[in-house]
Amino acid sequence: MRSLSQQLLRQFTRSAVGSSAANSATRSSVPIEIREVKSRHDLDRFAKMPWPIYEGDSQWIPPLLIEVKEFLNRKKHPFYLHGDATTFLALQGGKAVGRILVSDDPNYNQLHGTNVGCFGMFECIENQNVADALLNAAKEWLTARGRDSIMGPIDYSTNYPCGLLVDGFDTPPMVLMNHNRPYYGGLLEAWGLSKVKDLYSWWFVDPKDMVEKWHRRAERLAKRGGIVIRPVDPNNFDEEVGRCVSVYNGARDANWGFVQLTESEFLYMAKQIARIGVPELTLLAEVDGKPVGFSITVPNINEAIRPLNGRLTTFGIPIGLARLVRRVKRIKTARMLVLDLLHDYRRRGISELLILHTLNYGKNTIGYTGAELGWTLEDNYLINRTVEAVGAKHYKTYRIYEKRLVEDDQGSMNNDQ
């Protein structure tokens, strides 16, 4: 039989004590309501919830609200063709004080032989009770589906934004990367989550002109290995996507946290990237006509959306959209978000060739002044040494946490007997 204290703790998943402002001023008499997002009104509040959290944070990039809502749209996002997810909003005194996404990906569990669900899109005022209430709601949703562990922050899967920023708060996030307040880690750890893996992001500025230094060596590598590096052909979009899929799934199958993108997911992401990408920066590496590696580098669209405050329209007029179009042309940084190579073709200099071709075009043709590569796993020593060798610096660290859920309940039952 459970103790009274544990029964009360379960009640806190729906009604707990917390604060009503981003500065976490305590108002112990105000209950916390955890509400599953069902209505358009609550979806709007969920999407806008981060704004008060990041007031005064000069590094935060307000996301486009339309993009946030599309990401969560069950009718549009292909994750929902095989997985399931829901969102919760924490309210206190009528104000939104926290949010969380919780998801269940059967493909991941089948591939890894696990029984885990994920949480993501976590935002919270600096108040442990609010964080506990949100995480408990996620726990209840997952255990009701038979899952015994929770991992995150992961938005659906590691193919999408993931990781809690734990180092590198002094620079803004790049496109499709997370940013959060430094106190978030303490909230998650106090609930019982612990580190399972760190993810590294790397910064290129090419201060030593690595392109020139490596030019002759790159030519020798390409000639000796029969390696061809070429941009994808946008006129053969579906065929080129198929070539990239074969490499992506073959290159990552042994990586921690990997789950294959379904065909629908890959097409969805390819179209998203194509909207903002530069064809010359999506590269295929081929050996004797066989695709063996590829990389995708995209302009850091965060530079362009930063001043829009999340909106493309004002009073129905596409003012923000016009500003976005103008600002996209002035982007000066980029992010290499994919660098994959089939196992049998590693240690042949192909990764270096992909990076150098990207640096050369980005720096000397487009005029980029810097670029991020990320993320990489902390223990992927081969790729980490490769990116260091061509001049990158490790400048941000993101953390994935995990917690067993079933053991906690069993332990509590044993202690009460």
In short:
By secondary structure, the chain is α+β, with helices and mostly antiparallel strands. It contains 15 helices and 14 strands.
**CATH superfamily grouping of the largest domain:** Gcn5-related N-acetyltransferase (GNAT)
Q: What's the architecture of the largest domain in CATH terms?
A: 3-Layer(aba) Sandwich
Portion in strands: 25-35%
Radius of gyration: 23 Å
Reading the helices and strands in chain order gives HEEHHHEEHEHEEHEHEHHEEHHEHEHEH
Name the structural class: alpha+beta
Low-confidence stretches: 1-28, 408-417
**The CATH topology of the largest domain is what?**
Aminopeptidase
Total count of helical runs of at least 4 residues: 15
Largest sheet: 14 strands, mixed
Mean pLDDT: 86
In which range does the helix fraction lie? 25-40%
Number of domains: 2
What is the name of the CATH class of the largest domain?
Alpha Beta
Shape: globular
What does this protein structure show overall?
The protein has 417 residues and is of the alpha+beta class. It has helices at residues 4-11, 40-48, 50-53, 65-71, 106-112, 128-143, 184-190, 210-225, 237-252, 263-276, 302-305, 319-328, 350-366, 381-389, 406-416, and strands at 17-19, 26-36, 84-92, 95-104, 116-124, 149-152, 164-167, 194-204, 227-231, 282-287, 290-299, 333-341, 370-377, 393-404. Strands 1, 2, 3, 4, 5, 6, 7, 8, 9, 10, 11, 12, 13 and 14 form a 14-stranded mixed β-sheet that branches. The longest helix has 17 residues, at 350-366. The chain is globular, with a radius of gyration of 23 Å. The model is unreliable at 1-28 and 408-417 (pLDDT under 50).
